[in-house]
Target: 6-phospho-beta-glucosidase
Amino acid sequence: MKKTKTFPNNFFWGGATAANQCEGGWKEGGKGPSVSDHYTAGSRQVPRKFTREIDPNQSYPSHEAIDMYHHYKEDIVLFAEMGFKMYRLSIAWSRIFPRGDESAPNAEGIEFYRDIFLECKKYKIEPLVTIQHFDMPYHLCEKYNGFADRRVVDYYLNYCRTIFTEYKGLVRYWLTFNEINALSHSFGETLGGGILPKEDADMGNPFANSKTESPEVASRRFTALHHEFLASAKAVKLAHEIDENNRVGCMIAGTCVYPYTCNPDDMLASQQRMNMGNWFCSDVQVRGAYPHYAKRYFQEHNIQVTKEPGDDEILKAGCVDFYSFSYYSSACASADPEMKKTAGNMMGDAVSNPYLKASDWGWMIDPKGLRYFLNEVYARYEVPIMVVENGLGAADTLEPDGSIHDDYRIDYLRWHVEQMAEAIEDGVDLIGYTPWGCIDLVSASTGEMMKRYGFIYVDKDDEGNGTLERIRKDSFYWYQELISSNGESV
Model:
């Protein structure tokens, strides 16, 4: 690749984590139980399960995770050593409001995150805070069915008001909901919206698409999503009122969906998947209104979204300042029902691309798809963009001498950084890159430690054994050099 000063001098190089996958300390510091705390461990072969009661005979990964609750200072020092300009993390809502519907916050939780942000400031690392990252207080789900109940919008706003006020001057960049478009797919019902219908004894695998979803369930799901849209829009307005320096973004699970063939039916299938899978949520959050294609989709699926007078005005008044997304893989769409469907990054009805290789977990590796997606997003919205998740989940090996040689991860990341540089040359206003799992953490999709993403190895296995020691991988030093050269060493 031609070495140029493609990346702007103020580019936000960094990394990303989520509280429910790394923090642990699930009962410490006044924290209440969250939805994630009720998910058991799993694997590629055995799906994670949701249990209403905590079963002492089951393993719940979020309860300890990698214990960042007690190791955050050590971890931030390592991030600073790599040269991070930005650290994307989430706040555990149930650490601030243990039940979610209290009027006053938990003081210990407030101070815990204040300490984290002050530690980041010490090393000149800009926090990018996800307000809700597939997690919310369990009480809100048990009593209200989460965002299926409009009252939860107000509880979310009370939470936002608290953290915007408490961390004014320490945090400037916010994301309202992680991968909000997960709720536009049936697999996002539990994790995305915290919807826990009492009639469902076991939600099963939250990442498995349902082919038998009733119009009633779909209507509840899209009404919950509408409530999240309202909550996001109100949060944007509130953030600007509390601090004019605040910048608030949406966060989308980004996936390129190509037509499997040049058959026009495959082209339409691809377009429809891109519309409802990618653009639907960001059209609402960036443009401030439901897109034209949503009306037909709702009609054909007998979906009734419950709205109230004034909702359209709320959405229009709360457009986000920037667009952020995760990118791991691409997929193909086929109109042929006989085509073999293969799983890949939460897209259970997608078709494998014969031109691409897959990761060990079956996700298509497609760096050029990132360039394509960046161009599509920027052409559509013309707002600043951040890639806030990207990475390779792999089973790393700790060598006898304490080293971890993860050239496969370096290759994966280098290929994607090269395509980001191409997109910037194309004219895309890309302002940040925070690869996923900058330190090993619990996999959201499978609930295992074996699927590692980090530049930093954490000594813990799927059975919960290990010292929790932090060890630099080869990719740590590669990323350190990449940042120090502002992308030129790629």
